[in-house]
Write a structure and sequence with these properties.
Two copies of one chain form a homodimer. Chain A is an alpha+beta fold and 223 residues long. The first copy, chain A, has helices at residues 9-17, 22-31, 36-42, 48-60, 82-85, 88-104, 114-124, 173-180, 186-191, 201-212, and strands at 64-68, 76-80, 135-141, 144-151, 154-158, 167-171, 195-198. Chain A is globular, with a radius of gyration of 19 Å. Chain B binds a DNA duplex (20 and 20 nucleotides) through α3 and α4.
DNA sequence: CTGCATCCGCTTCGATACTG
DNA sequence: CAGTATCGAAGCGGATGCAG
């Protein structure tokens, strides 16, 4: 990409991550390391040569690392470096900003629940669940729905609908993303009628506790 | 821009703000509304037809608003809508991520202090200064330097060096941006030897108090 | 199958010139 | 000052080919 040639942290950042597809590749790798073909699956429409080129650029920028797997699986895996992983903060804000757009123009793109799985995976990755669960929950956002299974050893996420979830959370995309990125508390979301939690009070309380562990609200600073 | 056609808040956001120059235009407008030519000045290298087209796209996306000024100044001003202003959170994270890049490749782009003025302006825009100041400070980052004038009615920022600043803050770009976006406290920055505050203790304490009002540390959540 | 490289038509960008 | 018009260059998207 042509550089903006400006001595400014934003311009410098965009020199590296401003190219088409670059942030979406990072988005994919934020879930877990992936192979070339896995990435293509998650990025419908990308030309293979472009993916090759982007991966090279991201490797040069020390955002992505290419690792050759040992012989049994003669293949290469791409994963984020620490600097690449730091982009989760950028993507979190991009997602928060973009979520309302999903509610506005809900239905012309291919709809699958992959995006919800992604956010749930990121949200619950390192959240402690001791003393919580076992319980199951479903998150419904328009046509998308995923399942959560909370156990003492962590939260597992599935794109399949759960049989009989203890709690069903229903929200629009904006507030689902806000909940899953810690921008809003469950109580607050309910107070605004922005989310519904259907289920027995005890289970809802447990989910509240779980969601509260995702993180603090966004920085209120004016920068 | 061609749409990613994916039902995902990140992809939808990038459909709108992922085009070349788009976020830099928003960056300019975050300081204050600007006219076409003001924008060109802040975006060296942009072609005039591209700026025209981007402004139109951003207007359609309800990020930018075009306002015709009344007759005396027969001109148009571009300013951010609320949705556009909300992009400050995205740009804050982009800046935090990109700041270390400035320290790595310090010196091949045109260097001016405009970028520091921008961050300081954003940082101190709505910060209360009652009981603080009057005092002056200088922030030095490599070849760039700006001046701060703290008074009871607010903080004014200048790209000119102050004559005899009460305090001189010296830091690398990474930590200067971290300080000005509230990602790190002054005490913490000094403890890491990431920033120096030179001046009498009383004045430094006042600057500490000022910087502490910028905002809380970044959200620690793992999304 | 995975991980590319090459070719080609199309879109977007960038530089410059020009106009109300 | 605030754009529009033009045109070559670069980047993108899709198809295809191919080695390991």
């Amino acid at each position: 990409m042509r550089s903006y040639a400006q001595f400014c942290p934003i311009a410098r950042a965009l020199d590296v991550i401003g190219e088409r597809w670059a942030l979406l590749i990072v988005r994919e790798l934020l879930i877990h390391p992936a192979r070339f073909t896995d990435l293509r699956r998650g990025l419908p429409g990308i030309a293979s040569n472009l993916l090759t080129e982007r991966l090279r650029t991201l490797e040069e920028a020390v955002i992505v690392e290419r690792t050759e797997l040992p012989p049994p699986a003669a293949s290469a895996v791409y994963q984020l470096t620490e600097r690449g992983f730091a982009l989760r903060h950028v993507l979190r804000e991009v997602a928060r900003w973009g979520a309302p757009l999903l509610d506005e123009r809900p239905n012309d793109d291919a709809v699958d629940s992959h995006w919800l799985v992604r956010f749930a995976t990121m949200a619950f990755r390192d959240v402690p669940t001791a003393e919580l669960g076992p319980l199951s929950a479903s998150i419904r956002v328009g046509p998308s729905a995923i399942s959560l299974f909370v156990a003492a050893n962590g939260v597992s996420i599935s794109a399949q609908p759960a049989a009989n979830p203890n709690v069903v959370i229903t929200a629009d995309a904006e507030h689902a993303v806000a909940l899953l990125t810690g921008a809003i508390s469950p109580a607050n979301a309910r107070a605004q009628a922005a989310a519904r939690f259907d289920g027995p009070g005890g289970a809802v309380a447990q989910l509240d506790a779980l969601l509260a562990r995702i993180g603090a609200p966004p920085t209120p600073n004016p920068s």
